[in-house]
Amino acid sequence: MKKYKCEICNKYLSINTYKSRKMHINGSKHKLLKETYFMELMERNDIKNNIKSHKARLGKNYEFFLGKQNYGFRLPPCTFNKDFTIPPCPKNFRLPKFFDFTDAANFCSDINKNLQNILEKNFD
Question: Given phi > 0 = left and psi -120 to 50 = alpha, else beta, which region is 14?
Fold first, then answer.
């Protein structure tokens, strides 16, 4: 059975299971060593210069990559006429009491057939 080696702690785990790896990764010693490892990386000049060059190349799009963009609701990209208006809801519209949403027969592909079926059931 293979042993798991943690590159940050430079330690071999004798049991290579998901549970043992997760237990090691959630440990305080591993977290502390990981934090110091990345802090040392950020202090290196070649990495600092690399980050600065990427920021300069991105320019205005840098905030987009940081995740500071508003991810609210947006309409899909499409074109509308300039005089487009949303029609008002029909007044006093109600489905008949016997209308069954679970029945697939109530939803034909042709709307005229649907209306005809509803009217026939309503007057029977």
Answer: alpha
Domain boundary pick from 46, 64, 82:
64
Q: List the domain range (segments joined by +) for residue 22.
A: 4-64
Quote the DSSP letter at residue 60: G
- 18-72 residue pLDDT tens: 898 999 999 999 999 999 998 998 889 998 899 888 888 877 676 666 665 566 6
- Cα 106 to Cα 4: distance, rounded to the nearest angstrom: 59
Is 80 a member of any domain?
A: no
CA distance 3 to 20: 11
56 and 15, same structural domain?
Answer: yes
Alpha-carbon gap, residue 13 to 5, rounded angstroms: 6
